[in-house]
DNA sequence: TTAAACTTTCAAAAATAAATGAAAGTTTAT
DNA sequence: ATAAACTTTCATTTATTTTTGAAAGTTTAA
């Protein structure tokens, strides 16, 4: 396989993976492109490489910057803006985890708490509902706290975690 | 909040959460409904409760059964089939993790291996590509193995894991 | 200040994913 | 074997999400 083919395959795969995990295809593809680029890339280049519109590129770059996994860079003597991706994978995973926790898990926990604390009266059905949603609340809270813990580890938390799990 | 309202809120929230994580809304809603039901539910009841068509219900129940998180049940003297959800949350998490690993992570790893083993020639650009995709391969492999480890823990792996992380 | 060079926004269009429902397929009791 | 009772399939429709691109907005150098 030659370089250009491999590069394309990687960008496509990363894009497809993104959509399966609730991140839009273009956003994932731009991120992929920046990840494997050894120097900052201009918006023009991204549009050209991925064959997407200016608006789409702009919106998704903004989203990636909101997630904190893509940075703007300025080159001396250049009017245009350039972009780079967070390339450290531990850092990347932590940022994605934090963002999804904030956007999705925290609001879900709020709802779970609400519904699990209704007064259960005496029907078996209602008792089961309260029991099950309470358990779910505890589970999700525990999982979310685990994500928080990851962010406290300074370096290579994944490797260290695997070590611990293996005993 | 009364029971009916809480129940509805839970089902809607679970459905929305599902779509954010690449699982279709109805599939997640059916699962939610079965999770909080203290007894097996018929297809008719699911259709009625969620206001969805027979075909949709059937397809998504099948998908849930393929994932191994919903079971068919037969009631004595009843022609109809009933359904129940896996209610043990550890078991549920393990099954979902296994399934997503099989469907998404394993194929992605295959591609990552392919593209990271191209011959890098001498350009800095190609060297960076190979370096970055190799690192990504290692990272994803490690994360996937972590999921595997979870499944080996017999009971309450999440609780134990949190204990370990906390030191 | 101005205008060139660039970026962002957002209503409309296109692409994608999900849902419908009628027809085909199964199963089971008699 | 039959028909009633039920489930599944899949071509079509509907809903949702993403993309486009022209217009509006912004920044910078002179």
From TrEMBL, chains A, B:
Keywords, comma-separated and alphabetical: DNA-binding, Transcription, Transcription regulation
- Domain (HTH marR-type) ranges: 26-80
* InterPro entries in alphabetical order: ArsR-like_HTH, HTH-GbsR_regulator, HTH_MarR-typ, MJ1563, WH-like_DNA-bd_sf, WH_DNA-bd_sf
* UniProt keyword annotation of Transcription present: yes
The question of whether Chloroplast is a record keyword is answered with no
Quote the Pfam families the UniProt record gives: MarR_2
The entry sums up its family as follows: Belongs to the GbsR family.
Q: What is this protein called?
A: HTH-type transcriptional regulator
This protein's species is Flavobacterium azizsancarii
């Amino acid at each position: 396989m030659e370089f250009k083919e491999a590069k394309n395959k990687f960008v496509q795969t990363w894009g497809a993976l993104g959509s399966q995990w609730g991140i839009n295809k273009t956003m994932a593809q731009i991120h992929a492109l920046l990840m494997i680029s050894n120097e900052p890339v201009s918006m023009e280049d991204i549009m050209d490489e991925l064959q997407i519109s200016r608006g789409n590129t702009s919106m998704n770059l903004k989203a990636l910057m909101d997630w904190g996994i893509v940075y703007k860079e300025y080159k001396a003597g250049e009017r245009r803006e350039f972009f780079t991706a967070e390339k450290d994978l531990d850092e990347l995973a932590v940022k994605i985890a934090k963002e999804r926790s904030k956007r999705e898990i925290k609001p879900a926990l709020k709802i779970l708490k609400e519904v699990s604390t209704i007064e259960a009266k005496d029907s078996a059905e209602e008792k089961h509902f309260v029991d099950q949603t309470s358990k779910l609340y505890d589970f999700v809270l525990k999982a979310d706290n685990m994500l928080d813990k990851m962010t406290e580890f300074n370096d290579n938390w994944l490797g260290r975690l695997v070590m611990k799990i293996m005993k």
